[in-house]
Amino acid sequence: LDAHTQKIEQYSGNYYVVVEEIKNRVERENKLNARMQAQIKEKRAKSEVFAHKGGKLRGVAKRMREAAEEAEESIVQVRKEDKTIRDFTIPFQEFDIHFDGKIAELNSVGAFKDGLLVEKKINLVLRKNTHILIAGPNGIGKSTLLEKLSQRSGPSNRWVDNVVSGYYKQDFGNLDFDKTAYNTLLEVMEGPEDEHKIRASAASFLLDGKILASPVGALSEGQKGLLSFCRLMLMKPGLLILDEPTNHINFRHLPVIAKALDQYKGALIMVSHIPDFVAQIRIDEVIDLGEI
Length: 292
Hints:
By secondary structure, the protein is an alpha/beta fold. It has a five-stranded parallel beta sheet, sandwiched between helices. Strands 2-1-4 form a three-stranded antiparallel beta sheet, with no helix packed on it. It folds into two domains: about 15-80; about 100-290, P-loop containing nucleotide triphosphate hydrolases (Rossmann fold). It has helices spanning about 15-50, 55-75, 140-150, 180-185, 195-205, 210, 220-235, 255-260, 275-280, and strands spanning about 100-115, 115-125, 130-135, 160, 165-170, 240-245, 265-270, 285-290. Helix content is about 40%, strand content about 15%. It has nine helices and eight strands.
């Protein structure tokens, strides 16, 4: 179901085949619209000429205007959702000259077994430019683990002072739904307010002025997802914690997002159930909670 046209569309093939098919369809629609716009312009110009000549030609002018109006109604509406966000980079947090690259020491992880939380001792030093994938079956506690890491809970884990953590929560529960989208971005900016930078950054994620003026709770789930990624970009985190970052995101944007995560220079911990998405991101280590 297309959210913009409210029509059901069917495609066959894998992710990349579908993306290419939609891209080709949009190009065809744009070319068709360009031809029809030229025809409409020509009909309107002729109708103006005939209208000024009077007599029977006024009837011809009327029919040409009506034909132009019918042509306008036939113009194919190219969906806004067919647009793709621009390439972006999530900058890595700047540390002082004494920073040795270590972000955290993780000494235990937990997983649910038969309804009980089981802790496993590990010895993982999370460093700059280290990408970790948390794997395991549904219900084993992957999201719970990320939530604890985002809160830096767990007495056996150690965190570097002042490290900035960027957390993509799949239900967006870490966002204030009463705040405007603009203020949600503003609150993570360093230094004085830079309205131009905020609006330009938001525009690259297809978030226009109307969306920025709206409370987060009024946004669609897809818009909340794009807002979250824009927020991460402005935040400049040293650590990214991503809980199902593909949820609610239009699949046209996923290659762009995957590229940004693959190139991220900080520490990254991610849960994702989309193998094609994960395959586009460098993963240095996998922690499988199912093996605890």
